[in-house]
TrEMBL record, chain A:
Pfam families reported in the protein's UniProt record: Fer2
Similarity remark: Belongs to the adrenodoxin/putidaredoxin family.
Top-level lineage group: Eukaryota
GO cellular component, one term: mitochondrion
Originating organism: Volvox carteri f. nagariensis
Name of the protein in question: 2Fe-2S ferredoxin
Cofactor or coenzyme needed: [2Fe-2S] cluster
Alphabetized InterPro entries for the sequence: 2Fe-2S_ferredoxin-like_sf, 2Fe-2S_ferredoxin-type, Adrenodoxin-like, Adrenodoxin_Fe-S_BS, Beta-grasp_dom_sf
UniProtKB/TrEMBL annotation, chain B:
Cofactor: FAD
Catalysed reactions listed for this entry: 2 reduced [adrenodoxin] + NADP(+) + H(+) = 2 oxidized [adrenodoxin] + NADPH
Organism: Volvox carteri f. nagariensis
Keyword Cell wall biogenesis/degradation recorded: no
Chain ranges of the FAD/NAD(P)-binding domain: 48-273
Protein name: NADPH:adrenodoxin oxidoreductase, mitochondrial
GO CC entries: mitochondrion
Length: 120, 532
């Protein structure tokens, strides 16, 4: 099966470069390679724990646009950015070869800096 | 004594040679003052941790501890119920089964050899917090929020009883917190016998418009077949799941402020408006107005925009009354619960409000206008926030409703001050930061608390040696011995799995995901305990 290269930057800043099979999603690929990416709802768009940030906007744009359902969950993700996606919704394609994605880490002042109470 | 946030100066005598020794730790490097060095043992010291509460906060803490310590930790995770998972079992709505998938991950953690689940153990009754602290290097409190904020208005409490525990409502309605109602329909043993009878309730007023309020609205308004295949408790299904079981025809979501301040999120709101077969609109046309500040906020935040769009769209799609109606009561502040001559709930009186940016930092606050309405109802649900309960022997911040802490290290007093940490005691989850956030929020929270435990490891191990000798505290072995001595029926993971499989099998027989047991006695019998 054809594979592309994806680099995950984990919460500690450590890089993991893996060979990702076409057709798998980025959450599955992370788990296949024992990368610490949470996937509480197991890919059913019922949480936002597999939140990933594309370090390069060009690669972010290569991913088909998020559905309204994904955006609704992404809105609740911690540390949301303009190049954020839910890993379970990003399917590996050839155009993602060389992409770098970061797993957001909690800042020291998580509960102070711009803290907005989150709904539950 | 602390020199700076990351260095610790400890003074004391060496346990082996009683020479005066002192050491400084700086960013994980320890420097010793004397020739006598640290213990040279070939066996790595194991940290014994006890977590009180087995919801997401507790289990994510287990997850982070195992990742940090590898083989050098054992974790006992306690719950006062025989069933684990906290609000994932008793809070998440039955029509949100996917949200419960996280229990698969929690179950793999529980079956790890480094982890032991102990259900049906109540701290305060079966074991004291001081005993847990003596038996382990560290105790992490993760028991969430099992009480409620109050409206603080006349008529809120049943007039004929002095304590809410003895409350009996007339007519099948009454005033309950959303937590109680959610526990009731989710089969929590504590709420099993709440005197709710929906066949006698026509109109419900829910104070609050967060996702919990929407969950309650869905259970009250949905057609029977939505919940039949789920794990909604049988006694609730008999009411809401049957055309004759429920007389509910309208639900009012009463919010002090406007649609832009609503705490609910688009996914849940869309679900309520499109999947429940209800007709939804504001009770009065002016209740959809928004200010300039609101408009700016909507422009900046997609989530807020979506909520407003969903409410407007529902309003526009009016086709006259359907079998059940949902009313958005924005800009209405509850000021009194009206009771009939028999003490039963007859309605709520609300004051119309105007929203002004007068709060701290310009936040929108509701200001009364002096104009009042009455909403007729027989059942009032308060969905205005959970609140934690204090634990005897541990400091509690009554104002915020949490255990005072610094990044998860429990403090001896409410004022935040590094020198008054209650050593060896930690807190995580809602009990630490207040009752907000979703399941995943606890992951980041647990990381913060476990980072503190990790930074304290050496001090904790040394304290353990000082009290118990070189073997350290007994941990699980000591705890199980104590509980056995007291005749406590501890539900370990094996016993929980018997109950789990029993519920799933009973559900399968009825075409349901699960048929929950809702009485502790019955749960224990199914777990294999002989109950007289």
């Amino acid at each position: 099966m054809f594979r592309v290269q994806i680099t995950y930057v984990d919460k500690e800043g450590k890089e993991h470069t893996v060979a990702a099979p076409l057709g798998k999603n980025l959450l599955e690929v992370a788990h296949d390679n024992e990368i610490d990416l949470e996937g509480a709802c197991e890919g059913s768009l019922a949480c936002s724990t597999c939140h990933l940030i594309f370090e390069d906007e060009d690669f972010y744009k290569k991913v088909p646009e998020a559905t309204e359902d994904e955006l609704d969950m992404l809105d609740l993700a911690f540390g949301l950015t303009d190049t954020s996606r839910l890993g379970c919704q990003v399917i590996v394609t050839k155009s993602l070869d060389g992409a770098r994605v970061r797993i957001p880490a909690a800042s020291r002042n998580f509960y102070v800096d711009g803290h907005k109470p989150k709904p539950h | 004594m602390r020199l700076a946030s990351r260095s610790v100066l400890t003074l004391g005598s060496c346990s082996r040679c009683t020479a005066g020794v002192y050491s400084i730790e700086w960013n994980g490097i320890r420097l010793w003052s004397a020739a006598c060095g640290p213990a040279t043992s070939s066996v790595p010291e194991k940290l014994h941790v006890c977590i009180v509460g087995s919801g997401p906060a507790g289990f994510y803490t287990v997850d982070r501890l195992l990742k940090r310590y590898g083989d050098r930790v054992h974790v006992s995770i306690l719950d006062r119920l025989p069933t684990p998972f906290g609000l994932v079992r008793s809070g998440v709505a039955p029509d949100h089964q996917d949200t419960k998938n996280v229990t698969n991950q929690f179950s793999s953690l529980a079956t790890d050899p480094r982890v032991s689940f102990l259900g049906n153990v109540l701290v305060g009754r079966d074991v004291d917090i001081s005993e847990l602290r003596a038996l382990h290097h560290a105790v992490v409190l993760a028991y969430g929020a099992e009480s409620d904020r109050r409206l603080g208005i006349p008529g809120e409490d049943d007039p004929t009883t002095s304590t809410s525990a003895l409350r009996w409502s007339r007519g099948g309605g009454g005033v309950f917190s959303a937590r109680e109602f959610v526990w009731w329909y989710n089969g929590h043993p504590d709420a099993r016998h709440l005197p709710i009878d929906l066949s006698k309730v026509r109109s419900v007023a829910i104070c609050g418009i967060g996702n919990v309020a929407l969950d309650c609205a869905r259970v009250l308004l949905s057609p029977p077949d939505r919940f039949t295949p789920t794990d909604l408790a049988a006694h609730a299904l008999r009411q809401s799941g049957s055309p004759l079981g429920s007389a509910v025809r309208e639900v009012h979501l009463v919010a002090r402020r406007g649609p832009v301040q609503a705490a609910c999120t688009p996914k849940e709101l869309k679900e309520l408006l499109t999947e429940c077969g209800v007709s939804a609109r504001t009770a009065a046309p002016d209740q959809l107005t928004v200010s300039e500040a609101d408009a700016a906020e909507m422009k900046a935040t997609r989530l807020k925009r979506r909520v407003y769009e969903l409410v407007s769209k529902a309003q526009q799609q009016q086709q006259g009354r359907s079998r059940r109606d949902l009313f958005f009561q924005f800009y209405r502040n509850p000021v009194e619960v009206l009771r009939g001559p028999d003490g039963g709930v007859a309605g709520i009186r609300v004051e119309r409000t105007v929203v002004r940016p007068d709060g701290p930092g310009g936040t929108a606050v509701a200001v009364g206008s002096g104009v009042y309405d009455t909403i007729e109802c027989q059942l009032v649900l308060k969905s205005i926030g959970y609140k934690s309960l204090p634990l005897h022997g541990v400091a509690f911040d009554n104002r915020r409703g949490v255990i005072p802490n610094l990044e998860g290290r429990v403090l001896k007093q409410v004022r935040a001050c590094v020198s008054t940490c209650d050593e060896g005691l930690y807190v995580v989850g809602w009990l630490k930061r207040g009752p907000t956030g979703i399941i995943g929020t606890n992951l980041v929270d647990a990381e913060e608390t476990v980072a503190c435990v990790a930074a304290d490891t050496d001090a904790l191990l040394r304290a353990g040696e000082k009290t118990h000798g070189s073997a350290g505290p007994p941990g699980l072995a000591g705890l199980t011995a104590l509980l056995r001595q007291r005749g406590v029926r501890v539900v370990d993971w094996r016993r929980w799995r018997l109950l789990d499989e029993h519920e799933v099998a009973a559900g399968r027989a009825a075409g349901r995901v699960r048929e929950k047991e809702t009485e502790v006695k019955e749960m224990l019998r199914v777990c294999g305990f002989s109950m007289e």
